[in-house]
Amino acid sequence: MDASLAVRARGIAKYFGEVVALDGVDLDVAQGRIHGLVGPNGAGKTTLLGLLLGLAVADSGELEILGVPVGRTVAAVDGVAGFVDGPGLYPSLTARQNLAALAALRGGGRTAGIEEALAEVGLGEVADDRVRGFSLGMRQRLGLAAALLTRPRLLVLDEAANGLDPAGKRDVHGVLDRLAADGTAVVLSSHRMDDVEALCAEVTILATGRIVFSGPPAKLAAESRELDYRLVTSDPAAARRLAAGTDGVRLVEGGAARYGDAVVVVRAAVPALDELVANVVRSGVAVRELAPLVSPLESAFLALTASQEAVR
Ligand SMILES: Nc1ncnc2c1ncn2[C@@H]1O[C@H](COP(=O)(O)OP(=O)(O)OP(=O)(O)O)[C@@H](O)[C@H]1O
Q1: Tens digits of residue pLDDT in 74-104
Q2: 276 with 196, same domain?
Q3: Is residue 41 lining ligand 1, measured as CB closer than 6 Å?
Q4: Nearest atom (ligand 1) to Cα of 14
Q5: Which domain does 45 fall in, by range?
């Protein structure tokens, strides 16, 4: 048992009939860390999060949550909160009434913290509106507020950023950062690599029930080889000519049609890209913008999952 770990999973397997949803999954999540779970549809993310929430039990393997070994009975460990497949809410009640009802269900009917939780997720002004009229993003925020009421030490969120507008995203990221700073571990799944990169100290990539990568996103990004970059310079024609003449750099056709004539899209690994930039600047052409077209995490994720599919 390792008390510094909020989650310690070893060799977790979960089957649904013939379907292998999880196949030998190891996972360590330290307290105070935000851990991202990513993977294509059907990879096993929701299944794994469900095990952490005590909604199901693994068929084999060991699982410790907040230092407590999880047995073979379906039960949530104290200190764990969150949701999979969207938060369970009462549509005919207001946001505030929903939180009060959940607090009552959990026993004691404690209403302390409801106002703070609503304010923290940015729902203070709609606290007395019925949830029936709430958008997906507002429901997600209310689900998070419900989890906050329990002062969790492990928060588990399945696609909680779904439907959030930029303000909602900022609020939710702020809440998660604050929780992590206070020592709460957060495990979240997301299809948004930019969210994962912005929030998570560590990421686990699952594909067809197996772990393809686990570690800091920066490590994954460093391992990725060639990426597509958009390059904006003071002389696109010269940049195109120089890109074509730099070893290890390829021009990506169709870039101008998609992004305009000022943009040159090149495919290269970092050393060749450095060489191109040096060549461009040496030729008296100014570099105004250079950025990967897709994030390094997304690109590495696609490459890793594609290579795993090819092995299968
Ligand atoms: N209750 C169930 N009964 C039968 N099969 C299931 C059940 N739950 C999940 N599965 C199967 O297990 C596999 C993993 O599903 P899971 O929902 O965990 O994936 P996911 O990574 O969350 O996918 P998505 O990104 O689409 O939400 C899939 O093949 C799915 O069809």
Answers
A1: 778 889 999 888 888 989 999 999 999 988 8
A2: no
A3: yes
A4: 12
A5: 5-215
